[in-house]
Amino acid sequence: MDSLLASPPAPVPIRDACAALGVSRASLHRRQRQQALPPAAPLLRPSPPRALGSAQRQVVLDLLRQPRFADLAPYEVYATLLDEGVYHCSIRTMYRILDAHSEVRERRDQARHPVYRKPELLATTPNTVWSWDITKLMGPAKWTYFYLYVVIDIFSRRVVAWAVADAESATIFKALFDDAIDKHHVPPGQLTLHADRGGPMKAKATAQLLADLGVTKSHSRPHTSNDNPFSEAHFKTLKYQPQFPQRFGCIEDARQFCRDFFVWYNQDHHHSGLGLMTPDQVHYGQADDIHAARQRTLDHAFAAHPERFVNQPPSPPAKPTAVWINPPSQKADPSSVN
Questions:
Q1: Is residue 275 over pLDDT 80?
Q2: Confidence category of residue 23, pLDDT binned at 50, 70, 90
């Protein structure tokens, strides 16, 4: 009995195995024959007798590398040489020679887009990083617009300056920004102004103004809306208001709506990113007192009814301490890995 258990199992017939696997026996035998053959040597294509020799190919390559031909396509080189009464080879041969030296590419000099650096801005107090942008407000008729300029402090989310105008202009922004700097008593060298790459933002007048005021300029990368998140989010808050009209009858209507909106936004809007405080409360240094008062209120509620708080004593939403535009990526420290 033990010898029967120790004997190897009987081989399965090929016919039964192929039937179980759904494989054709002819295909199996063909593959076995192919695997038994020695690997075939690669076929070397003989060089045609009319092909250029190595010295002739080098002459053509040196010719294509000359300064007057370096930025031209082989078609242009071929035609130019023919007009000069010179023939070395066909256009296709020129391409073969270039390809053999990895030089088949766009040979013309073209503009190269610069590598834009990702802005990484940190604000830990008000009046250290401002963001500004312009959005369109639809006018009374189709294709008519008013332009809303908004400058926002990214730490407190307070709108520090705004204006509604008939056009986008660096001159309009200059007057608006000058007034905001004076109103908030921002010293030179303290403020960074962030914006996208619109015309007024990149204008020479704007750059000169910021240099004169000692303000550092910062720009978003092209087509990267996440680089200017606070202005974009603010415009969404504005345009998603139930009272926001589809069109404004005139520029004075737009200014009156914005005047009422910004008073509400700065003074009454409890911002979720500010620990449910208003922009004015954070901007003018009231956050610590308000947070402490809220904590006392919650402490009284906990003392009166501790059974209502299951996990831990309640605490108010955290105060804002640091705000980033594109925080640097946190890479794991190799020494901390066990």
A1: yes
A2: confident
CA 262 to chain centre: 29
- Distance, C-alpha 66 to centroid of its chain: 40
Interval 71-93: pLDDT, tens: 888 888 888 888 888 888 888 88
Domain 121-280, what architecture?
Answer: 2-Layer Sandwich (3.30)
Residue ranges per structural domain of the chain: 54-100, 121-280
> pTM, whole model, 2 decimals?
0.65
